[in-house]
């Protein structure tokens, strides 16, 4: 009797659904009833034991080569390798790291860095100007990942062991560029006798940072452990964590349970609901910091119905900005223009508001809107991204009231991007939703990559083509290097042109980093210029 | 496995009712309730505007309470209202798919079964080709090519669904065509189309009807799967699969967003299945 089996199966599904629902509604389970995973990660509590356990939700290492590394491993790399400078988002300025000081010529084309004395690579060699030159030159030659950041560099000279001089093709803020999160590492290019890239990817490092690789086991739960590098130039006096472990927990709830039990020190990411729970837990502290990553809603300026600037402005007005930020429950903060706060070029007071009446009026002028023709638009966004989904839900609901049908497709990034880059403009979408963040702490990236005209679009997915805007964008690096006030003005003017006049983009929000970490961790400050990085050396293990 | 259904038709309505399987009644009642809920959604939903384009982000993710029996979703819409309105979408899809694929499949099948020979061969080979594809894969491919919408879902599923009815009807029609009363009709000079419509078709329908009611649940599940993959209904259309998809990441903290539409899918698929099984048990007796 087949139906008995079917009934049984249906009943089982129902039972599972109900049980799962029942336990999910209550408190997260405690330590007692959850089986141990048998991992080797040591508990993080207490000053006597000084391992800092970081919980990411994705695998840590995809590429160990400091020249081409351009992914999640930044959370480890920034503790192993150092760059010449480091960006401070509070002062909006760069600070000494391997370079103790630097100067630039008045035209911004010659930069001289003085290197710190006594810094050593983990291989034992001293960090001198010749080594730094070799590292940057290798990174440039490999030309992978974020290596393009050095594209302004014409020539590097090691004047003496402590002096590194850069000659640039055009003026650029090289102190900012040297503080980049990727491709800016100084490393020992002579570390291996054979193929250096291969040597790196076997799990070796040649950095000068406070920690060095102890063990790396790809695919293991505790994927990576780092140990203190005894000869670190900063020294090990005072209280520091002597070890760093990276323990991968793809499930946010698992990560949260580990933290609650005191097994780990730091959780990279929770959802808004778990984050709220973390905020009211005694043994845990939380921090919420605006990132440099914002959401861009790119409107097709070249083709389809949105070619009409009035319709693009109507789209901008239809977005429920306040509602979106409310629904994000702390995962995002209202954006003011294209440039997030904390970067040169950020303009306050530009936060947009939803204006449905205004949108309706603009639609009517173009012959659409309630009572007019029905407007049909296509939108693509990232599959599985709950935050983008909120935007899509709110926008399509608002547009539905205005007689606009939004066909929104969630796609994998490569598919979404390929469609955006399609040679045939009629195959492209009307609205493209994506995140953007800079590779170094500079707003230039938003403009040169996203809004400068391109023959074959890469990231200019609003397909904006405007010579005046192009010219102004090209002047940005020189202005940033030589005339900061002028740069501020240029950024403000560009944002006005791109957002208000051309209506090429709407910026609904800037992402917030929501971290939860143990009460025993002291001195943690989130630095959005280095996404998800914890500079463990700067922390104090507390009681 | 399906015996001729003729004896069943000779019974009086009363006797037939008395003999009806309890299971079929349970399925029918449950399904009737769901249909009723769908029809009356605008009047019985506590927040009818939430079934449309209203959003209330400030009331997002409220747990079930007196004001919102099933809680609210990510943008503050009443989940109960959306589940009720979602019944309309799901039932519409189920009815449309079954109607389109049922009519197409039965017509082709009965022609194939009665005509035999090369007509039968051509039709059956075409159905074989369709049946060679995994149904969901073919639907997926179609849904990707077409713009995501409820219509797309209906088309995509119907295209993969009709061959089953064609094949089932063809086999029954072939055996019916050899029966005495069909021969008699032929000898009397009744034209072929009339024989097919008057004699073969009515007597080949029973197993298809059972299969159709059994498949209602399958269609709803497939539609939910397509929406779940982002290829079906899109916002703000209330659709159960879409609701489950959007709520899944919240399962551990805000379980109600995904659970209630999930239960609605379960209940409806269950009702169709029970009705179908009941009918089959009854008609094959």
Task: Kindly describe this structure.
The complex is a heterodimer of chains A (543) and B (285). Chain A has helices at residues 2-25, 74-80, 129-142, 174-177, 196-201, 252-260, 272-279, 309-318, 321-328, 356-365, 386-401, 413-420, 444-450, 467-474, 476-482, 484-501, and strands spanning 51-55, 85-88, 93-96, 99-104, 110-115, 153-160, 163-168, 211-216, 222-228, 243-247, 266-267, 284-299, 332-334, 375-382, 404-411, 431-436, 505-506, 509-518, 521-522, 540-541. Chain A has 543 residues and is of the alpha+beta class. Chain A folds into 2 domains: 51-283 and 519-541, 3-Layer(aba) Sandwich (D-Maltodextrin-Binding Protein, domain 2), CATH 3.40.190; 291-512, Roll (Dipeptide-binding Protein, domain 3). In chain A, the strands form 4 sheets. In chain A, strands 1, 8, 9, 10, 11, 12, 13, 14, 15, 16, 17 and 18 form a 12-stranded mixed β-sheet that branches. In chain A, helix 8 (309-318) runs antiparallel to helix 10, helix 9 (321-328) packs antiparallel against helix 11 (386-401) and helix 15 packs antiparallel against helix 16 (484-501). Chain A is globular, with a radius of gyration of 25 Å. The relative contact order of chain A is 0.15. The model of chain A is unreliable at 1-48 (pLDDT under 50). Chain B has 285 residues and is mostly helical. Chain B has one domain (22-179, 205-283): MetI-like fold, CATH 1.10.3720. Helices cover 73% and strands 0% of the residues of chain B. Chain B is built from 11 helices and no strands. Chain B has helices spanning 6-10, 13-19, 22-44, 79-115, 117-132, 135-145, 150-177, 180-187, 192-228, 240-247, 256-283. The longest helix of chain B has 37 residues, at 79-115. The termini of chain B are close together. Chain A binds chain B through residues 2-3, 6-7, 10, 13-14, 17, 20-21, 24-25, 28, 252-253, 271, 273-274, 277, 320, 322-324, 326-327, 329, 378, 383-384, 386, 389-390, 392-394, 396-398, 400-401, 406-411, and chain B through 23, 52-58, 60-61, 63, 74-76, 147-149, 230, 234-236, 246, 249-256, 259, 262-263, 266, 269-270, 273-274, 277, 281.
